[in-house]
Amino acid sequence: MIRAKKSLGQNFLIDENILEKITNVTDIYNKTILEIGPGTGNLTSYILKKNPKKMFVIEKDNELASNLENKFNNQITIINEDVLKLDETKLFKQEVTVFGNLPYNISTEILSKWIINLKKNFWFDCLVLMFQKEVADRIIAEFNTSNYGRLSIICNWKLNIKKICDIKPSAFFPKPKIDSSLLIFYPKKNFVKIKDPKNLEKVTRIFFNQRRKMLKKPFNQLFNGDKRVIDKLKIDLTMRPQNINLDTYYKLACEYENLRS
Fold this sequence. Notes:
By secondary structure, the protein is of the alpha/beta class. It has two domains: 6-187, Rossmann fold, CATH 3.40.50.150; 197-260, Helicase, Ruva Protein, domain 3 (Orthogonal Bundle), CATH 1.10.8.100. Helices cover 38% and strands 19% of the residues. The protein has eleven helices and nine strands. The protein has helices at residues 16-23, 42-49, 62-72, 88-91, 107-116, 133-139, 150-158, 197-208, 216-223, 227-233, 246-260; strands spanning 12-13, 32-36, 54-58, 77-79, 96-101, 124-132, 159-167, 172-173, 180-187. The strands form two sheets. A seven-stranded mixed sheet has the order 4-3-2-5-6-9-7, sandwiched between helices. α5 packs across α7, α7 crosses α11 and α8 (197-208) packs across α11. The N and C termini lie far apart (58 Å).
């Protein structure tokens, strides 16, 4: 019997209605599919019913990877590696559709890695991913709300995001203590060009380091009180970090790059 490992954040999805719903979110037929953390292969089975062209799975757990090999034979290609150490842009020559009941303890790290590492071309056509509900709420949060922060800004930079549904703990084994949410991400055709994404990470980190404080201190830390930036982006330094919209943060990252070049 396969046991879920707490250390790897494993909760296996078992609800057949939810499994069916996930595979109906986007067209799978004749596409190349990548599934992250397939676990016992429940979602894998439902995806294969939709006749994808090819299917890859990334499973770090050796026991689970071996079990998947026995269960699916040559129907899938198993990559028995840590997803955080892989470069997906080198794995796939064409865009893939990604599904993932992501391990909750590293879900934001996985998503951030994919966004930060995106080069000129996207290696996926869409991401269908499950998160803890509170994490999903932060990802899709709009400015002027309490959930809005660094994760919202980084995730929405190059991706359009839509919430599909919330999922109760009873859909999993073992049952997590929290609700989950299913999100779908599509690449944006147009987005603010930031040369080095690490600058966006730095700008948002400094601004949200003290999210209840006014913008004046973090702005001065980054821009040394440069009035030209204030006037250009029409920033009110008496506001709080959550009062600044997405686009302004992307432009701030660009201004920070210009200042350093």
